[in-house]
Specification:
This protein is an all-alpha fold and about 240 residues long. The protein is built from eight helices and no strands.
Amino acid sequence: MSSKIAASALLLALLGCVVHTCQAGYGYPYPLSAPKKSTPTAAPTLNYAHYYKTCKGAEKIIRDVVQEEIKRNPGIGAGLIRLFFHDCFVQGCDASVLLDKIPTNESTEKFGLPNIGSLRGFEVIDKIKTTLEAKCKGVVSCADIVAFAGRDATYFLSNKKVYFEMPAGRYDGHVSSASETLFNLPPPFANITVLEAMFAAKGLSLDEMVTLFGAHTVGISHCSSFGDRLPPTPRTQWL
């Protein structure tokens, strides 16, 4: 299972790195239609040890901050994994999920219904970025930080049993839309047909989908995400 998690996470890291420089369950259109598989834009070439010459030690800086934050709050590790996942499934792994509102765009991915109020880890990414900027300004992309942080969170949450090399060289995206989160991120009530289609549209197989779902053994979930699947007993009626 560890090797499958690693392989699937690597596939997620390679999804759409394409753009340059839980209250889940509320407000989703239903039933969802299976998304159409789009032709990916030409992606930058990713490589290992990408920052060896331009920002040596960048991966260690990221890993140290992630370790520190997980020691303080183990739940933030699950948040970083989910942050990476939600970034990659909307326009590729381009850190567009980090973008805040601006006068010309009042509704970014961060404020999409699957993300607002439940997506966590932004402050950890900010802390990592500040530390890296002090060492090598303008070198390490936010997209790569999110990817490395997700990888390192997996490493520490698995008691250092799951580790894999992560290629880098992603560009940061400048386009972010809340409306794209609804039809790209799997909702908690989607059936197997819709889920399989959503993952296939991202280049992931059914086996990889099941493996990724298995990663939901860490973190927390809001009652609204699964309460309707519990039997109506006195202890669950309040859900």
